[in-house]
Amino acid sequence: MKLLLALALLGASTSTTAVAAPAAISWHQCALNAADEEGKALDDAGAQCGELQVPLDYTRPNGPKITLAMSRLKATGNRIGTLVLNNGGPGGPSLSAALERPILKTVGERYDQIGLDPRFVGRSTPIDCKLPFAAWPWAAGTTRASFARSVEIQADVAKRCTAEAGSVLQYINTRNTARDMDQVRIALGEQKISYLGYSYGTYLGAVYLQMFPGRTDRVVLDGPVNPTTYGPRLIRHVGPQNEDNLRAWATWTAAHNSTYGLGSTTRQVMASVDLIYRHVATKDLQIGTHKVGEGLLPILFWASLNDDRDAGRADAAAIIQLLRKAVDGPVEPDENLGGFLDAVLAPAMSQPISAQTAIACGDRTAPSDPKVYWRDIQAHRASEPHFGTLTRGISPCAFWPVQPQEAPTKLANSERALIVAGEYDPRTLHENAAVLQQGIRGARVLTVAGARKHGIFGEYDNACANQKVVSYLFSGNLPAGDQTC
Asked: Model pTM greater than 0.90?
């Protein structure tokens, strides 16, 4: 279940001050201790791990340093070059990215694969706002009182981040992460790097292309983010697509009514969904030791409806079946729902949510008046009844203590890339691909027709798309025009 002004540097310059060449990376085994399962998996795969010191503030290259953590899985065959991987987020760790999609084993025949945790993420120098639960995003609910509660939650996130990490917040943004990537390129001794980024990673890759033209070889951007709207309100416009995906799931579930008992028609399944929503407007659902109310319920639906393959729809149906049963009284969760609630409603997600928040708030400002969000939600309640309170809700960025230090990156280049997009992606709309292509004029778009999935390459079992991406990575030849699988 997978999200977040004084100077604009739109050309090749990486900062206002030249940065000295970074030190070499010292490679070592990945496991930190006997309990480090991630490190052990990397070691078992033959990977190495390493760290690189980079400037906290690129305008003071000789000032304080932070650490970037990375893994390297060397090419097993005839090596083409180095492929840097990013899983998205913002705030998503990528140290183990090479192990998370089986198809990358094929890619790894020709590439050294670098799983890089961005600044302040994962094993890199971290940020942790000590959040009691995964508080952003959080839905606004149906009433002014529930909306006010969501405002309080987001203001508290900003307050905690100010207290725990206020001295570094101004240095957490995508442009600095792109600068970090170039320091990694230099430290690896590469004239050019290749890049594979998913979701937010498409924005990071696009920013790198703009800031460092000519320093990439082959670039794949999967699940394209709209570079003109990326920031704290990144998901504001995806409510309608998620409503459509919910109805498509309801149609599938109606055909499996004997298993899930949510209704034998699309209308009946949607009525079961609406019953759950009406219930939490007045009373929380008791699921195991957790309570699920208006703030959390849309997140459960959002997280569940991200894959239109049968297995994904079955997982969603099982979760929503439990939610429907909880309307009639307390229920015990299955492993999937229980694990999700355990993570979201406990401090376990504090670090990734802290990083996600800091990056989004560091990249673009958000309206500071809560009334802006309330009016937006109210205007779209009828058309986005299940997701609008989440996608249009307020974020901690409304209360962020520092302003972005640079203007958002404006894309205007002729770099080359392959943009991969699902036709009905519920997270990053398909139309984003065209917007991204307008800024990266040498890019081509590969659309997977009918796909209601965020993340395609190596994730969606589409042989056509997988073959075309691998072919591009191996040959370096982009298609002459946009293509559809």
From this structure: yes
